[in-house]
């Protein structure tokens, strides 16, 4: 909608596409692991987002369906069960519940799945299952390498736990003031939130006008 064309890192670093939408790198979950997580979620009647083949498959469990759509506007394809997706290699899975339950689920499931995938809380209500080698930092490093940029020529901005690897790798790590404390602890700069146009002002004043050496 903004008319911007550029490379895209998505699925917490699991997918990298170039400006022409060509797939450059792809990391997915093992099909058996995905089926096991999906079966667990259905047995507990937990809402699960299953991201495969460019489609988000989900059972319509309220109020979580509306919560996720309201936050992301992502098109969601309703399924009665995820069992029919067995054999697919999703980019990630996402269980959502109350913040307290998400923390409890992570503690419960880490011993069961931790050696086969990474479990991360990306928002208070989101528990995500992603490939062990999927990370925004490694994806950003791969993209920079393809474009011919060193880490010190790259700026990265974020506000969530899943942005840690990206900010650690980039030569200039920018955290949002309303973001996670862990992120602000590793950032080189903390800027005001979107209500104050903090990131836009920093890019304009400190990177573009000041000629800080970071490619726009």
What does this structure look like?
This protein is α/β, with parallel strands linked by helices and 216 residues long. The longest helix has 15 residues, at 99-113. The two termini are 20 Å apart. The chain is globular, with a radius of gyration of 18 Å. Strand 5 (55-58), helix 2 (64-72) and strand 6 (77-78) form a beta-alpha-beta unit. The chain is built from seven helices and twelve strands. It has a six-stranded mixed β-sheet, covered by helices on one side. Strands 1-2-3 form a three-stranded antiparallel β-sheet, with helices on one face.
What integer is the average pLDDT? 93
Helical region count? 7
> Outline, from the CA principal axes?
globular
Strand order of the largest sheet: 6-5-4-7-9-8
Q: What is the strand content?
A: 15-25%
Q: Mind describing the biggest β-sheet?
A: 6 strands, mixed
Q: Got a strand count?
A: 12
Low-confidence regions: none
Distance between the termini: 20 Å
What is the chain-wise order of helices and strands?
EEEHEEHEEHEEHEHEHEH
